[in-house]
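Customer escalation, tier 2.

The customer says the design service returned an amino acid string that "doesn't look like it belongs to this structure." They asked us to rerun it and document both sides in this ticket. The original C-alpha cells are below, unchanged.
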C-alpha cells in the first residue's frame, strides 16, 4: 500500500471544558476510515507547541485508554493523537471488525487477523503524518505503544525520526529486540511492565539492557496487570508517562 496522506476529515472540532480531545477521521489510501482523538497542545509560557506524541493502544482495548494522558500532554503544550487500530473501537467496517473476527474458526480467524494487521503499519504512518503536519519540519514526535502497539511503534520508528519511544506492557520477540538494538537503542526509551506478566516482563528487561540512552527508564510493578489496568491501579502512572515525554521532547 503506498504511503498516501489521502484526506483528513475533522468530524468534530468541539473542545469541552473537561476534555481537549477532538474526534478526527483519517482516510487511508484504500478509503478506510480511521478514528482518532486529537489533543491540541496548549501554549505554555514561552514554549512553542511543536512537539507531539502518537499513542497506540493494546489489542484488548481501544484509543480511549489514553484519554487522561492525551489531556495532560495537551496541558503541557504537547500535541497528542490516539487512534483506533483498524478493526478496533470505531475504526471498523464489514470487513475489519475484531469482534466478528473472534467468532471465526481458528484457521479463518488467523487469516483474517493477518489481513487486518497487515494494514496497521500504513495506518500508523498516516497518523504520524497527521502529527508531523501539526508540528512542522522542526518539530519532535514521540510514540508510545501498549502491548501489540509496541511492535507498530518499532516499525514506525525504523522509518521515521522518532525522538522518544515508550513500550507499555509490550511483549517483544527476539527479532523485535534485535530491530530495536540496531536502530533505536540510542533513543530515549520508557519501558513499563509487571513482574508476573510473562514474556512481557522478560522482554522489557532485555529492551532495557539494550537501551543506550542515559534517560531511558524502566518502571516495573508487582503482579500481572497488563497495560490499561496499570493506569487504573496507579493513579500517578499517567502523570509519570507525561512528565517523561515532556522532558525528552524538550531536551
Amino acid at each position: 500500500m503506498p504511503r498516501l496522506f489521502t484526506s483528513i476529515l475533522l468530524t468534530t472540532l468541539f473542545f469541552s471544558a473537561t476534555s481537549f480531545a477532538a474526534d478526527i477521521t483519517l482516510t487511508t489510501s484504500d478509503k478506510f476510515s480511521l478514528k482518532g482523538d486529537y489533543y491540541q497542545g496548549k501554549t505554555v509560557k514561552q514554549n512553542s507547541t511543536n512537539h507531539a506524541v502518537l499513542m497506540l493502544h493494546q489489542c484488548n482495548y481501544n484509543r480511549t485508554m489514553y484519554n487522561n494522558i492525551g489531556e495532560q500532554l495537551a496541558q503541557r503544550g504537547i500535541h497528542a493523537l490516539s487512534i483506533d487500530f483498524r478493526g478496533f473501537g470505531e475504526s471498523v467496517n464489514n470487513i475489519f471488525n475484531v469482534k466478528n473476527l473472534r467468532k471465526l474458526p481458528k484457521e479463518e480467524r488467523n487469516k483474517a487477523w493477518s489481513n487486518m494487521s497487515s494494514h496497521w503499519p500504513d495506518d500508523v504512518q498516516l497518523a504520524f503524518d497527521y502529527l508531523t503536519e501539526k508540528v512542522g519540519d522542526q518539530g519532535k514526535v514521540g510514540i508510545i505503544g501498549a502491548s501489540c502497539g509496541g511492535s507498530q511503534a518499532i516499525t514506525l520508528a525504523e522509518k521515521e525520526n522518532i525522538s522518544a519511544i515508550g513500550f507499555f506492557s509490550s511483549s517483544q520477540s527476539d527479532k523485535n529486540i534485535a530491530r530495536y538494538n540496531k536502530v533505536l537503542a540510542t533513543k530515549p526509551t520508557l519501558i513499563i511492565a509487571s513482574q508476573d506478566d510473562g514474556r512481557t516482563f522478560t522482554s522489557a528487561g532485555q529492551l532495557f539492557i539494550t537501551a543506550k540512552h542515559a534517560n531511558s527508564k524502566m518502571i516495573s510493578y508487582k503482579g500481572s496487570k497488563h497495560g490499561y489496568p496499570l493506569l487504573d491501579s496507579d493513579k500517578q502512572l499517567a502523570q509519570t508517562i507525561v512528565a517523561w515525554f515532556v522532558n525528552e521532547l524538550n531536551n
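Tier 2 assessment: The sequence is consistent with the input. The longest strand covers residues 21-27. Residues 7-250 form a domain with the Rossmann fold fold (CATH 3.40.50.1820). Sent an explanation to the customer and offered a walkthrough call.
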